[in-house]
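Minutes, structural biology subgroup

Action item carried over from last meeting: produce the structure token record for DPP IV N-terminal domain-containing protein (Flagellimonas profundi). EB confirmed the sequence was re-checked against the source entry. Recorded below for completeness.
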Amino acid sequence: MNKQSFLFLFLLGVVTFSTAQKKKITLEEIWGGEFRTEYMDVLRSMNNGTQYTVLNTTRSPRSSSLDKYDYETLQKAETIVASSDAVPYFSSYTFSDDESQVLLATEVEPIFRRSRLGIYYVYDIASKELVKISETKIQEPTLSPDGGKVAYVLDNNLYVMDLAERTTKQVTTDGNKGTIINGVTDWVYEEEFAFVRAFEWNSDGTKIAFLRFDETEVPHFSMDFYGTGLYPYQYEFKYPKAGEKNSVVTLHMYDVASGAISNVDLNDPYYIPRIKWMHDANTLSVQTLNRHQNDLKLYAVNAEDNSATVLLEETDAAYVDIDDDLTFLDDDSFIWTSEADGYNHLYLYDSNGKLKNQITEGPWEVTRYYGYDEKHDRIFYQSVENGSINRGVYSISTKGKRKKELSTQEGTNAAAFSTDFTYYINTYSSATTPYRFTLHDASNGKLVKEIKDNSALQDKLNGYEIAPKEFSTINVNGYDLNMYMIKPADFDPNKKYPLFMFQYSGPGSQQVANRWMGSNDYWHQHLASQGYIVACVDGRGTGLKGRDFKKLTQKELGKYEVEDQIAAAQKLSERSYIDENRTGIWGWSYGGFMSTNCLLKGNDTFEMAIAVAPVTSWRFYDTIYTERYMQTPQENPTGYDDNSPFNYPELLKGKYLLVHGSGDDNVHVQNTMRMIEALVQANKQFDWAIYPDKNHGIYGGNTRLHLYTKMTNFVKENL
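Output recorded by EB:
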């Protein structure tokens, strides 16, 4: 035996011995919270810029307190309010503009993904007086700028309470479940435009702009809930599926003093995804979209006569994204984000909508806009300038000059700034480093103080068999696609391993990112410890590599993304250590749609697939999301049907596990039922599981443990 062979065998023996001494991650540990990551409590910067507040809660005994801390020392300065016999337990809070009052949320219950009902109180900090807003649970209470009034929604109607007089006025009267909604959004706006409160106070509290949704003609959807009683019951709501009628949305202005409501004519826009008052109390900005979502207009509405002027119009051959980055400066010039040059960047416009200059530019994307420090002319943002799988924090002037790298450590950096932009708290993680929280000087990024890390978790994981994520790119179909691979900790290049691929693949998404592990990553580690290679490839249509790469899948969801996953699997199978006859793929939601299609259209490549809560036809999904990428089924029938897996069940050759929650209000279980029926009629055998009353997340109690145990067993038995 030569020296090199002896050395290799010795090192292999050391690795094998070292690996054998470490524990393997178990499913019970993953979903029992054994590897729970510690985070910073949600903090809000105070107006003085030197202090912040945190909501602290305990479960036993059940208590809550709103505490004030100093940035410089990170020490608690005082408790503003705490639950007691006089103050109920509260789960969230909002300050008035002058921070003299706090709105406290109690007895909160969810409606859909973002909407909530609750009993709310206003607490006066100086007098310690507590005022209950309503005896009935309400939605979206919002204090007026002077703190004297609070507007809210009850039973689809808008109300205003005068806190000094303890009187409440009902603003609208036509609200009714299933027909008219005032001041909050309907289901599809909440889910796809990501907001619930659809009313806004102007800067002096004299007017409230609000949206009214008429969902009378929106098709009705119902689903059975089985519960624990003798009879199940139906949950009913309005859900517009692709090509069907949406709510008719209109904009209205309420004059607080007179009580008059007036209508704002915007030439019948199809969608109104954002409204926001300017600093000028008489000017409201309104964003509108056409049904295809490829023509966005930004209006300035004069609240004195409700006249509307177009400030800006943006069009795109595919679609225009909606975000919350619009920021008005003191003179009502504004900062805007756009993909106009092919990448998402920041732009500055004057108050009349004339472009002053492009602030950021380059072949990379701005991923977060944090704010503008007018005193020092600094814009703060996050971007992928240091690599599309990484995130850095930067500052730059409105003229695009004086750019500074603030937090650019390789991995994912995110920032939360103090109100006056003196400090920021940086959240950092990478594939090898759990979340670390540090305080920095916003002028130069200099570290001020370490706040919290997850060293205890890191120490614990040192005792476990953890295989590194190996980041790389893979060239398929003419593109270098981001990829990671997890190999067994005792990987032997002379052996052959089964390949199990994970992906999501939805438009603008990203799974291959240099950040700390989530629960799926721990599951992938568990599988790697059982002898599987796990790989993830972000194909065409995913995000952060430019407009053209993201929007290439327009009108063909499930075509190019599937081609990329199949091609990637084939190319990986050429590697000597991968068994080309043992290739699987899995995904959730859009990823389940993808894994199903991959197993069918790539039936000579994939031997098994798992699909959790999948879309099986985009005809079944909602208007806003689906039509953004596909237009309507009436306009694009082949785009919908050629990539709908229940239209070609006869292609199934491998092993297939199909999972759904029966109470999924988002991707309806109808998708899975239609897939099941198609497979049955094609006489194709498969495995499936329905989780009663569980929503799109399929969780609660032991549900996640049961689901992942089922998926693990399926992988072991079929791959």
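Discussion: The longest strand covers residues 578-588.
Next step: EB to file the record with the rest of the batch.
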